[in-house]
Design goal:
Elements (H helix, E strand, L loop, with lengths): L1 E6 L4 E6 L3 E2 L10 E6 L19 E10 L3 H13 L3 E11 L2 E10 L4 E9 L2 E9 L3 H8 L1 E2 L2
Antiparallel strand pairs: 1-2, 2-10, 3-4, 4-5, 5-9, 6-7, 7-8, 8-9
């Protein structure tokens, strides 16, 4: 079972697992922003999430880059994070969604938390979908992205 999130600022919608918690929408004047989704109530101040997640939970950040941004530009920023020691790159693969270029990344952050990420272009901008923890929500969200009117 899935639910659909529609981002009114970008005009992009995507599916995610039913029953997940979704962050409030960004301000109407936001240019680059993120939506967080999780299998647990991360809005609860006592919820897990800092310094890694316990087994059995999943958190996904969907980061919308500024209009006109590209996968290559987001990859360049990732390289800055790698060079600065903020991210360790474990794996990187070229992907496509339809005829649009994309990257699959597996890495580790400064808390030694592994993540998987898909960077893709849709709706005239780059979008980063980053998953922490267990599950397969990354593919569901990335592959279901679509532009809505």
């Amino acid at each position: 079972m899935t639910e659909t999130y529609t981002d009114t600022l970008s005009g992009i919608a995507f599916d995610y697992p039913a029953g997940w918690t979704v962050s409030p929408p960004p301000p109407a004047d936001a240019v680059a922003y993120a939506i967080t989704l999780a299998s647990y109530d991360f809005l609860d101040p006592n919820a897990p999430g800092v310094g890694g997640l316990p087994p059995g939970v999943t958190k996904v950040d969907v980061a919308f880059s500024a209009p006109g941004s590209t996968v290559a530009e987001v990859r360049d920023q990732l390289e800055t994070d790698i060079s600065g020691g903020f991210v360790t790159l474990i794996d990187e693969q070229q992907r496509t969604f339809g005829d649009t270029p994309a990257l699959f990344i597996r890495g580790q952050d400064t808390f030694n938390t592994e993540f998987t990420q898909i960077i893709r272009e849709i709706g005239g901008r780059a979008v980063q979908i980053t998953q922490y923890g267990d599950g397969d929500a990354l593919e569901l969200i990335a592959s279901s992205m679509r532009v809505v009117e």
